[in-house]
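>> received
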Amino acid sequence: MRRIALALALPLLAGVLMCPKDAVAKPGYAEISTQAESQVAVPAFSHIFLLLLENKEFNRVFRSPGAPYLNALAAEYGLASQYYAVAHPSLPNYLALLGADTFGVASNCRACYQSAASLPDQLEAHGRTWKAYFESIPRACYAGDSPDELYVQKHNPFVYFDAIRQDATRCGRIVPLEELSADLASGDVADFVWIGPNMRSSTHSAPIDTGDRWLAAQLPEVLQSSAFENEGLLVVTYDEGDSDAGCCGRTKGGGHVMTVLASPLGRRGFTSDIPHDHYSLVRTIEDAWDLGYLGHAADPSNANLAEFFAPPRSP
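>> returned
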């Protein structure tokens, strides 16, 4: 696989178009669940990796000299240039990415647990697996913040869902980040993988360049793994930005954030200016694996991110 050069020149940005859902799916592409809004198919990825960074508006990161690795990754693969968080502060965005709803949560509350369905429920119902890796979590299924406060519960949405937290087996899939290297090396990788950096690595409590160096150290083993190289997907995004910017039918959001999609099945050096948000990402995962839709992922105003993977048009 081509390595990402940190000195890679960043290309000019260009928009793309969407295609109807009812078009015939290409071989290897998942069927789309029935919805009123037209959607195009997305690949049935072998694995999906989702990595969350923290609290940076798009213009603070894009082409920033402090983020050469992330910008090179975007230039090599794909950049969602009009991607938005859905709320403030952090926790509602994390809940949105796992449950397609903020559930009325408007703070970083500790005990605002939810009895709602989540993406892991959908995955398991369709015979798929998931695992969440968190940096600095003291042990599997840990409750609360770590003593050194590098790991914080508000950045772990899994424990907020009763059906996960209260089930020892399921909660046992929330593990320290150190386990990821061994899993990648052995090929024992869940279908859906969540990667949660700690408070410094995520840039919540550290400069952008700290997080970028962390990405440069951590992501090569993901990108060079068979789980990624054999039709996988990696998404790197931010939980929220600094503004209230939003999209997709919502008058107020959680800010304009940089989001990168990397896949061997993706269009290389591609930028989309179609508006997307966290619910769009949930919808993309659901469409890839034909899971049906949770919450706001079903909203007609939310397009999936299929333009990153659409086969090129014939001349």
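>> The longest strand covers residues 48-53.
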